[in-house]
């Protein structure tokens, strides 16, 4: 089995000689990858590098009102949502049929998890991408099924009960990654998925 590098790594730890050579020859670039900044219940602030997700903790639909820049967009009913950065677009977001987004586009993508769409309930039914000028506000309905949603950030679960208000936007912080010029994000996408 060959070792594979992730979306962030251009070297393996055992390639120390190659890392030193690339540094001495100044053969690398620094890429700035966007983050998502958010708050839960207007108090707990955080940044995420890949994705923020919210899911029902029971086998029932979760009801959420989505607002874009304080304007109601939709009432979502389903298993949950994945909100990803461009670099996170190749992870959980991709597995729920979201788009892969170039990390040179500071943005966040909102993807649905098993939305309920019928004659009574309707959602967009596809992922959408928001620019840094847009803010996403999620209000969790007061239904008893919504009291204990599961919240994850970059694969880490948050233990917050009675979540009712989530605000997300493209962060003002970036993650700087050292990379080789001949190993772009799209080279890695091709290597990992095609």
Automatic annotation (TrEMBL):
Keyword Cytoplasm attributed: yes
EC number: 2.7.1.23
Pfam families per the UniProt record, alphabetical: NAD_kinase_C
GO molecular function terms noted in the UniProt entry: NAD+ kinase activity
Keyword Transferase: yes
The protein's name: Inorganic polyphosphate/ATP-NAD kinase
Family annotation (InterPro entries): ATP-NAD_kinase_PpnK-typ_C, NAD/diacylglycerol_kinase_sf
PANTHER family, sorted: NAD KINASE (PTHR20275), NAD KINASE 2 (PTHR20275:SF9)
UniProt keyword list: Cytoplasm, Kinase, Transferase
Organism superkingdom: Bacteria
């Amino acid at each position: 089995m060959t070792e594979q590098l992730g979306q962030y790594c251009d070297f393996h730890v055992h390639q120390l000689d190659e890392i030193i050579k690339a540094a001495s020859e100044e053969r690398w670039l620094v890429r700035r990858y966007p983050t998502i900044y958010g708050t839960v219940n207007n108090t707990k602030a955080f940044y995420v590098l890949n994705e923020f997700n919210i899911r029902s903790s029971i086998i029932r639909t979760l009801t959420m009102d989505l607002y874009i820049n304080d304007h109601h967009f939709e009432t979502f009913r389903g298993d949950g949502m994945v909100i990803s950065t461009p670099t996170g677009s190749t992870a959980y977001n991709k597995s729920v049929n979201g788009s892969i987004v170039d990390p040179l586009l500071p943005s966040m993508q909102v993807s649905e998890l098993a939305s309920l769409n019928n004659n009574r309930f309707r959602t967009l039914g596809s992922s959408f991408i928001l620019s840094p000028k847009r803010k996403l506000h999620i209000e969790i309905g007061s239904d008893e099924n919504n009291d204990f949603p599961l919240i994850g950030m970059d694969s880490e679960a948050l233990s917050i009960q009675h979540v009712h208000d989530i605000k997300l936007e493209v962060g003002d912080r970036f993650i700087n990654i050292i990379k080789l010029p001949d190993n772009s994000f799209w080279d890695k996408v091709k290597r990992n998925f095609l």
